[in-house]
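Morning. Coffee machine broken again, so started the prediction first thing and wrote up yesterday's gels while waiting. Chain of 274 residues, entered below exactly as on the submission form.
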Amino acid sequence: MTTPAAPAAHGGNPYGIVPALQQGGLIAQTVFGILVIMSAASWYILFVKLFEQQKIMNQGKRARSTFWQSANLREGANKLEKNSAYRQIVDDGIMALEQHDKLTDPIDQHDWMLNSLARSQGAIVSRLSSGLAVLATVGSTAPFVGLFGTVVGIYRALIKIGAAGQASIDAVAGPVGEALIMTALGLAVAVPAVLAYNWLIRRNKSVIEELAKFANDLHGYMMSGGAVRPTVAARPATSAAASPRATQPGAASPGGTTATGSATGTTTSGPKKV
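Came back before lunch.
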């Protein structure tokens, strides 16, 4: 009688990942499950952080085009999205400005505002950095988890060789294939996690730099009573040729105040007008 071919018993491939997990037992299945969880967590964090970063970048673009054209801080804050990172910085700055006069132990207003804005930025940076530790952990530990499955597979191959008394291909092909599959899975999980971590860190740095610039401009605006503010780009309808004064240091901005303040130091609003 003819013996049925071995590949038919496993759907045509006795050395695939499913037969390897079946032959590897509980240890191989546990290692595979851990790697799957690591991979799912990495991809989830990647997409969530990308969405969060892009949202703050879009908020920054809108803040540059609307906030600095406002007459005062309150009006500018109302133009920003609620619960946005830039709205949080402005609200914290306004609150710090209002609370300065209530301090029983006087402190320089410049230092008080600087520390308040830095604390607000720190809270946003901490929120941006959440989850990145998981990517770093996955990137550094996934290869070793896969290596553990590799060691178990090689051990099983050696046990089969010892039991059979000879190193035949049929005896060791399954366990060795299982070992190689675990190694490949560990690398397949670790490499995307490391790449995602480095990419998100670089994007976080760009976001943080933009937040720092905005906070610095806000600090200067509040400490100068509105005289110091960043130059807002002219609207598309206004050309440089039609408005030659738009590029001058003392030209009026769309919000009705000067871009850098006049030479005499006159301003349209005091530091307490929020």
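The longest helix spans residues 169-223. Going to sketch it on the whiteboard this afternoon.
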